[in-house]
Each structure stands twice: as C-alpha cells, then as structure tokens.
Amino acid sequence: MWCQSCKEEYEEEDAGTCKECYEEASETEEELKREIDDLRSRLLFLRLPSPTLDAASAPHTDLFLHAIPACSSTGAGGEADAVRVPDTPAVPAHRVILASRSPVFRAMLENEMEESRSGIIKIYDVSYDVLRAFVHYMYTAEALLDEQLASDLLVLAEKYEVKHLKAYCEKFITSKVNNDNAIAHYAFAHRHGAKQLLEASLSELMNNMSTLADREEYKELVEKDPRLVVEIYEAYLNRQVNTAAGKDTDCGCRK
Amino acid sequence: MWCQSCKEEYEEEDAGTCKECYEEASETEEELKREIDDLRSRLLFLRLPSPTLDAASAPHTDLFLHAIPACSSTGAGGEADAVRVPDTPAVPAHRVILASRSPVFRAMLENEMEESRSGIIKIYDVSYDVLRAFVHYMYTAEALLDEQLASDLLVLAEKYEVKHLKAYCEKFITSKVNNDNAIAHYAFAHRHGAKQLLEASLSELMNNMSTLADREEYKELVEKDPRLVVEIYEAYLNRQVNTAAGKDTDCGCRK
Fold first, then answer.
1. ipTM of this predicted structure
2. Does the CB of B196 have a partner CB in chain A at under 8 Å?
3. CA–CA separation, A117 vs A110, rounded Å?
4. Are the CB atoms for A105 and A98 separated by under 8 Å?
5. What are the BTB domain coordinates in residue numbering (chains A, B) (predicted)?
6. CB within 8 Å of chain B, chain A residues 158-177
7. Chain A CA closest to residue B56
8. B141 to chain A: which residues are within 8 Å by CB?
9. Do domains B49-144 and B177-255 have the same CATH topology?
10. Do A67 and A88 form a contact (C-beta atoms < 8 A)?
11. For chain A, what is the largest distance between any 2 Cα atoms, rounded to a whole number of angstroms?
12. In tens digits, what is the pLDDT along chain B, a chain of 255 residues?
C-alpha cells in the first residue's frame, strides 16, 4: 500500500496510521501552525523598541542605569554607595517598562527611594555589556546568549526577580552542560536556585563518578563547600539503590 | 493492520501513512507544541499591565486620552478643537507605549505639538468604552470583541495606523459576514480599505444576487454610493465569465 505523506510503497508491518488519523493529524498540524503565526504576530506587536540599540528610536526615557563592575566596588554587596560611577555610558530605560518586568525595580521606583527621585539606578557587580543585554531583554524578550552572558544575566535576573529571563538563561546553560563544566555548573546552580540546571549537571556528574575525584574543580569544591560534594555522593548512592531495586523487580517479573 | 494512532484495525484501502512518516509527524507536532509554549510565555512576559484596568497597577502614566463622542463634536473632522471635554474620566497611558504602537501618536508626541506639551490627547468621534478598549489593546494585544466594538476599533486603528489591531478586528468581522449584513460590511470595508472583509462580503453578496435588489440597504447604497453597487455587478459578471470559461475547459478535457 501507499503512504499518503511520502508517497512511497510500504509493507503491512511498516504501517503507521489509518487514513482518518492521517487526515486528523494534518489538520492539527495546520491549526498549530496558524496558532504559531498568530502568536508571532502578537509578539512582534508587543515588542518595544529597545533604547539600548538606538536612543532615538525610543524617546521619553526617564531612567538611567549605571553598571558598576565588581572591581570598582569597595566591598561585597550593597555598602558600595559611595562608589564612583564609571566612565561607561548610562543605559537609558523607561520606568514603566522596568517596573512592569521586575518587582524589585517596581518597589525601588514606587517607594520614595533615592532611585525614584533621581531617575538613576546603580547596578553593582556587572559589566556595561551585560547590563545593556539585561535592559534589552526587558523590551524585546530576546538575547543573543553565550555561556558567559547567560550566567551573568541569570544572576541579574535572579537579583531583580525577572523570572522569565532567569528561566530562559537556565534553559540555555542546561543545554551546554558536559563532563568538563558539570562541577562549575552544579555549584552555580546551587548558588542561584536553578533547579533544572542542578539536575542536569548532577546527572552528568553521576555518569562520570570514576573520574570525579581527580578533577581540580572537585578539590576546590571540597575545600570551599563540602556540603555540595556530600550531596553529589548522596544522590549517586540513592540512584544506585534505586537501580538495584529496579533490577530486583525486573527479575521478579521474569520468574 | 493496526493504526498506531487510534489503535483500530483498518483495511489496505484505508491506509494513511507508513510508520516512518507517522513518527516524523508526531515529532513535528511535539515541536510545534513546544514552540507554542515558548511563544506564549514570551507573550506573557511582554504584555504590560494596562492602566485602563487599574491605574494603581500601572504607575508613571504621563498621558491622558479624552474620548469626544461624535455628538459633542461641532463639525466633521479636526475643526472641533474648542469642543468641551465630556465628563467621562480620562484614559491614562504612557507616552512610550502609545508612541511605539502608533506612528501617528509618535509624531504627535515627538514633534512639539500641543498634545506633547500638555500630555492631553483628544480622540474625536469615539465613546469612552471604545477608547478604553483601544488603549487596553496597546498594552496587552487583547480585546474582547463583538461586531460593534470590532468596527469601532478598526476605525480607530486605521486612523492611528495600528496595523496589528486593524488586522485583528478585520479578521473578527470577516468571520461574522452573512447574507443579512453583507451590504453593510461591504460598504464599511470599502470606506476603510479592509481587503479581506471586502472580498468576504462581496463573495456573500454574489452568492445571493437574486434577492440583492430587494433589500433596503441595497437601495440606500444605490442612493449614497452607486459606484460601489456597480463594482458588485462587475465582480458578479466577471465571475460568471470565468465560471463559463472553466466549464468550457472541463468539457474540452473530457472529449
């Protein structure tokens, strides 16, 4: 008989679907494609021209963000208020956009805080380029990621509670997990509450347990945060027990 | 043989696809669904809280739109500048949003026009509810349409060049075309350059030519804009000629 999709002849054992299901599936596919077109056109409408690309294309900005790289900071965290604003240009933005994307910016801009009055927000421990990509995402829901930028943006997204961006970066980093970077990603995921990345890097580590202890990053992690190393071993043991239990059940079935 | 989709038995003449194509189609469907999920989550992120729903949820508004219904207007078009602003509340909005959605608002707000200085825009020949729905769409790409609202919004969208909204309304109205409203929609589509709606209503009219001339709306249209009526007859004749030509070709084939 003949396949209605590829027009090739096939034998009975290679049968896929009946005619009715084939037609239904084709209709479903058409419907899904129409929905995608509709969603894409609404996305294009809702995207806003980003002031990070071209200030002229996005006028009426009423806010300026200044990146304060980690090296300019006098101490850890927020006590660096007296820090000199570096020479990189400010990133312009609109209060309404930042406040609608991030509850942290929102609180900052609505409660009579210094930032709300002056329209100037200092963002600590971040480079100008990362800040620019961060603001760009707030307008467009788009970012051209590499692993470093994804990590930097994830940290910012966590700090300012931009959940959608955090999930976007986490998904990207998770897709890049391999044996070489699994320890670093595992520790990073722990620090920033990135569950999907944690599971992926832990799974990669467990698949390569025999060489784990030889790695330089492993020794560093034992030194710096031994509890995380304990969790790797606990997860590994847990998996071994479960696999063994699974095998026992299998044997039981076959008897 | 058995259908892998509905699990029912079927005969050779009811064959749909081979196994390979079935699996490929299932994968495609999964991919499309994943894309839809991704697009939906980006849409949710890009939607903005609309100040038409709750002013508190969208602070920093720097613009007020006033609806001036047709009955308050002293004359046709723009000479109604001295018109009293009615008692309905103003619709608050943000310059950055209106300017990014509509080139007309953009020009108004960027060139040193009265509206830009005062932050007050009068929208003529429109009710408060329609204006509210119009502004709401600018923030959310959503509107709860009925035929009247869709027509009113289409007119506003055309005036302020919000293409996405115009297409959205036109699609909705087109889905409602029937023999009873086809003349009205045909004339409306002509007035506002709505091509898809024009074709749908013209096609509906041509399918009911025998009763066309008896209709009250037809007589009104002949009175008001006879050229539009001529276009209906021209299109009808054109279709008849094409159908006849098609039949001739058919006969030729069968000989």
1. 0.82
2. no
3. 10
4. yes
5. 80-147
6. 164, 167
7. A110
8. 42, 45-46
9. no
10. yes
11. 79
12. 889 989 998 888 899 999 999 999 999 999 999 999 999 999 999 999 888 887 676 778 889 999 998 875 444 444 444 555 567 889 999 999 999 999 999 999 988 788 888 889 999 999 999 999 999 999 999 999 999 999 999 999 999 999 999 999 999 999 999 999 999 999 999 999 999 999 999 999 999 999 898 999 999 999 999 999 999 999 999 998 988 888 776 554 544
How far is the C-alpha of B127 from the C-alpha of A159, rounded, in Å? 44
Q: Which residue in B121, B120, B132, B122 sits closest to B53, CA to CA?
A: B132
CA distance A29 to A36: 11
A34 touches chain B (CB under 8 A): no
CA angle B169, B171, B173 (to 5 degrees): 70
Considering only CB atoms, B3 lies closest to which of A1, A18, A101, namely A18
Domains of chain B: which residue ranges? 12-46, 49-144, 177-255
Residue A33: phi, psi to the nearest 5? Answer: -65, -40
Closest residue in A to B22 (Cα) is A16
Q: Is A80 helix (H, G, I), strand (E, B) or coil?
A: coil
Beta-carbon separation of B42 and A40 below 8 A: no
Given an 8 Å threshold on Cβ–Cβ distance, is B5 in contact with A18?
yes
Beta-bridge mates of residue A64: A92, A120
8 Å CB contact of B16 and A14: no
Comparing CB atoms, the residue among B19, B29, B60 nearest residue A16 is B19
CB-CB under 8 Å, B33 with A29: no
Structure tokens at A10: 């096939």
State whether residue A241 is helix, strand or coil.
Answer: helix
Chain A residues within 8 A of B2 when measuring between CB atoms: 15
| Separation between Cα atoms, residue B8 and residue A38, nearest integer Å | 35
Nearest residue in chain A measured CA to CA from B5: A17
Structure tokens at B35: 């894309």
Q: Nearest chain B Cα to A116, which residue?
A: B60
B46 neighbourhood in chain A, CB within 8 Å: 43, 46-48, 141
* CATH tag, B177-255: 1.25.40.420
| Of B41, B66, B185, nearest in space to B119 by CA | B66
Q: What residues have CB less than 8 Å from A45, skipping those under 6 apart?
A: B101, B141, B164
CATH number given to B49-144: 3.30.710.10
